[in-house]
Amino acid sequence: MEPEKIVIFDTTLRDGEQSPGASMNIEEKLDVARQLARLGVDVIEAGFPISSAGDFESVRLVAQEVRGPSIAGLSRANIQDIDRAWEALQGAERARIHTFIATSDIHLEHKLKKTRSEVLELAAKAVAHARSLCPDVEFSPEDASRSDIGYLCEVLEAVIEAGATTLNIPDTVGYALPYEFGKLIATIRERVKGIEKAVISVHCHNDMGLAVANSLAAMANGARQVECTVNGIGERAGNTALEEIVMAINTRSDYLPFRTGIDTREIYRASRLVSEVTGIVVQPNKAVVGSNAFAHEAGIHQHGVIQKRQTYEIMDPNAIGLTSNRLVLGKHSGRHAFEKHLKELGYELNREELERAFARFKEVADKKKIVFDADLEAIVSDEAHQVAEVYHLDYMIVMTSLEGIPTATIRMQKGQEILQAAETGVGCVDAVYRTIDKLVDVPHRLADYNVKSVTGGTDAIGEVTVKLADNGHIFTGRGASLDIVEASARAYVQAINKLVYHHMTRKAATEDKV
Ligand code: KIV
Ligand code: ZN
User: Fold this and answer.
1) CATH no. for residue 148?
2) Please, what is the Cα angle at 490 between 364 and 330, to 5 degrees?
3) Residue 434 pLDDT grade (very low, low, confident, very high; cuts 50, 70, 90)
4) In this structure, are 373 and 430 located in the same domain?
5) How buried is 443 (Cβ within 10 angstroms: 0-12 exposed, 13-18 middle, 19+ buried)?
6) Helices (H), strands (E): how many in the chain?
């Protein structure tokens, strides 16, 4: 029997972006959306257009630029939200309006302050309005898993009648257990009149670590769309992880008679990109994409894998796009070979990015004998995610000793202006950050600092992620270098440039309006 298709609805740019500290700027969202298209997701939920001008603009841009998947915009169940979502989706090849309202008594009483019949009417009206604009309409009864089943079925019947084409059943607070959630989907299939006219979808949160298990249980009972995010990011403990659900379907095809349209070889790159732009580090033991997911520590395991990979590996690392850490290029490699190799790794850089990346590669190759693919990826993504440089780091001298006080001297440029200062700190990175703070007069708070090495050894490239908080916004900066103090400075300056750029463009927008 032909395996049935599971629609992969990716919400990395909407629910994923709701993860604490995961905010992305518009270019970063566009990069992620393009990678999602390469990955082959069926639907990209690009944002919640009415929630902010930035969200509207990013949904508009993704709809206009990204081809392949349908583009969805989220809206509450009211006319104004739906119209705004529809406006943002105008450029899409295929658009979907996703509208939601809560159906559990706890949400009705304490959040919406509405009766069941009022909510039912709002849901049906919203769907009918959305359907008058767009042929593809998804409806979500928020907190479905804690809603009264009789009432939930009534609402679902009403929205099918109003024209909903996908019914998404969210386990909003990650409360459901697999057996229970599967049964909920089975009951909906049995009891809701007209259910065959719509696709049943599920949207599971991971508060008890059950999001993937609940989604699988739902599929076994008739769900044919799964909502998920790359690396499982999302509100609180996150959502169903795309890579986990897809690899479960592929690995256990003997038990799961399903297929997806995902090109699994793009999974690793998608994971890395999402981690970079959100600054959310993937835990080493994360299923499928964690750095230890294919690492074998015990001698017996290593021996087994060498004899036959399948003794201890149920998935092939190549299947998710993990290349073995090969020696790629040396210091004598030319620009042409460099560009060709990057293409093989899946990177398409413009001329300027390529020049910068090549110069950085030469620097690294001069100092480090062996340049691995992972090193190359760190350099390239550093250069590919550059932002408008208001402040440019010119030079930096950092001194430290066992007994002495770490001191940094830094020169930066701001347009034609040369800025120079020195400061001490409790450590080298502290001294550098204090000096930079002296030179840039923008208020901010360091919300997070994270350093990790790309490969093993003391000559490994260090990748630093920095998050700066300002007025409820988070600005993420990344830097990669053989020297972690330099990587720290690069990451900090990048985050500052994003923050300053944000202030400048906001000011310009206000001036435009006056
Ligand atoms: O978790 C949830 O209920 C949601 C809905 C908007 C689908 O994110
Ligand atoms: Zn959610």
Assistant:
1) 3.20.20.70
2) 10
3) very high
4) no
5) exposed
6) 16, 18
Question: Model confidence over 173-230: pLDDT tens digits?
Answer: 999 999 999 999 999 999 999 999 999 999 999 999 999 999 999 999 999 999 999 9
For CA atoms 346, 281, 174, 176, the dihedral sign is positive
- The answer to the question of residue 298 being in a domain is no
Ligand 1 centroid to 141 CA: how many Å? 8
DSSP E strands, 246-313: 258-259
Using CA positions, which residue lies closest to atom 4 of ligand 1? 172
413 and 359 co-located in one domain: no
CATH of the domain at 400: 3.30.160.270
Question: How far away, in angstroms, is 179 Cα from ligand 1 center?
Answer: 21
Are residues 343 and 470 both part of a single domain?
no
User: Is residue 134 domain-shared with residue 250, that is, in the same domain?
Assistant: yes
- In angstroms, the CA 396 to CA 411 distance is 6
Domain shared by 377 and 231, yes or no: no
Question: Distance (Å, rounded) from C-alpha 468 to C-alpha 472?
Answer: 10
CB distance 381 to ligand 1 below 6 Å: no
> pLDDT tens-digit profile of 54-94?
899 999 999 999 999 999 999 999 999 999 999 999 999 99
User: Does the beta carbon of 140 lie inside 6 Å of ligand 1?
Assistant: yes
First to last CA, the chain: 64
Question: What is the rounded CA–CA span in Å between residue 432 and residue 490?
Answer: 10
Q: What angle do CA 121, 130, 233 make, to 5 degrees?
A: 95
User: By residue range, what is the domain housing residue 353?
Assistant: 327-384
* Nearest C-alpha neighbor of 396 from the set 405, 414, 409: 409
| CA dist., res. 494 & res. 411, Å (int) | 15
Q: Which residues contact 404 (CB under 8 A, 6 or more apart)?
A: none
Q: Tell the residue nearest (CA) to atom 2 of ligand 1.
A: 172
Nearest of 224, 144, 156, 145 to residue 178 by alpha carbon: 145
Q: Please check whether residues 51 and 183 belong to one and the same domain.
A: yes
Cβ-proximal residues to 34 (8 Å cutoff; 6+ apart), any chain:
65, 66
Cα–Cα distances in angstroms (integers) from residue 4 to residues 120, 188, 220, 222, in the given order? 32, 20, 11, 10
Which candidate, 423, 394, 393, 415, places its Cα nearest to that of 496? 393
